[in-house]
Predict the 3D structure of the following.
Amino acid sequence: MSGYGLFQPATLGMQSQAHRLNTIGYNIANVNTGGFKRTDTEFETLLSDTTFQQSDLGGVKPYARATNDIQGLITPTQRPLDLAIVGDGFFAVQPELTGTSEIFFTRDGSFNVNTVDGQTSSVTADDGSTITVSNGYLVDKNGYFVLGSAADANGQFSSSAAAPMRVDQYAFTNQGQPTSTAAFEFNLPANNEFGSTAETFTLRTYDSNSNERNISFDFSPTQTENQWRIGVRADNLTTSTLGPGTTATTSTTNAGMATDTQFVFNAATNTVELETIATGASVNNAFSSYIAGDQITFAGAASAGNNATFTISNVINNGSTLVLNGPLTAESTGALAVTGTSAAALTNPLTFTPLGQLTTPTSMNFSATWSDGATSTFSLDTSAMTQFNGDFTIFRSSQNGLGQANITDLSFDNNGQVLGTFDDGTQRAIYKIPLYNFANPNGLETANGMIFKETGGSGSATAFFGDQSSRASFVASAIEISNVDIAAEFARMIQTQNAYNMSATSFKTIDEMTTVARDLKA
């Protein structure tokens, strides 16, 4: 290498160390920037070709090494629209609301709600008037729309169906969900006896128009030990059934009944009793399938007044006698073929073992028609019901219906779900945030605003949900700030300064040597 060529390593050394110092300064400046990923500057040797052989006297040049796969510091903010990622993955954002705009990726979960010019909706105000409102969407700090998955009709989410999320007050005003499933986990008191006051629970459900319907379920013990019937009541209820159930028929000619039986109607006490004709003895358990509130229809009696439908007020005398709402005509039916048939199918009783465990039915089906023509149909899971001594205890109840309501507040949970608090007092998971992973996240291209672009070196984005994968989780009301370690950066700064000074000293020494050589005289 000629004398002047000696300047090259020292010059490249100063340039490289200056570049590294600039990177360190950039990292330190962004130490508190949300989602920032530091850049580490490393070095590689430059080789120069000589006349005779390859040489390593060419010098050095810097290269940047991304750290997109290194976790940043999680900082609590107590802000409900902040969400931090722990582990792999990125949020996806796009600059435009619609169209095929480019998708960017970010680790900064500091989100806001922004409106969009020209994006409005017409809604009905509280006074019944129609008003125009601006649509609001969840955006990142750059104003880019955050992509999330909306819940489907079954309340499920798909990571492949992500789109901008509308979250303004009126976003879900017209979106309700009829109740299709419900569940009870109660304890029925084993010490309750037939005829005791029913244990009642009122469940809030939603009909086919997503209107609220409060249905009362009355749990009454039957005359058979360890069995309970469920009755149903509700305002504006036209018809209802709770199955499985069967229509009960009690007849003077029933197979298995005592021979020569008759109904005895008593107008004074509004009772009807099944008894044997010969002895007048009561037929026990003739009406044991019934409870108060059921209806029974008699046919075949001699008196037209008794051939009618009556509501049962009570079942007495070991199930042989019904107390009816009347009025009745005093009559003994004698040898007439008379039947008493339940006006509706009687719900199969909840049957428990002597140890208090439910055997059947573990699931029931409810259907109803309301006075305005709306309907309700849902399954009722009773498998967790028990019968132990003690009080009527409500451990848990649930139903999946949703009413039409306005959003009053927004937040995230640790599963990455967007939770909406509504003015009907409910909280619903309205969206879920998917994450996107890459084969080589360090191959992503960094753009302004601390966002990243997919490249050939990064590979294609793969969507997943954090709570369905071991690769990532979320922390609500927190953000991930930079992965810059101040102590490490200052250590690098000192090292870089010393390396720069040594390259500068080398340059100065070579310069002095060259000057001496220039001034030499033959």
Notes: The mean pLDDT is 90. Helices lie at 7-29, 486-519. The longest helix spans residues 486-519. The chain has two helices and 40 strands.
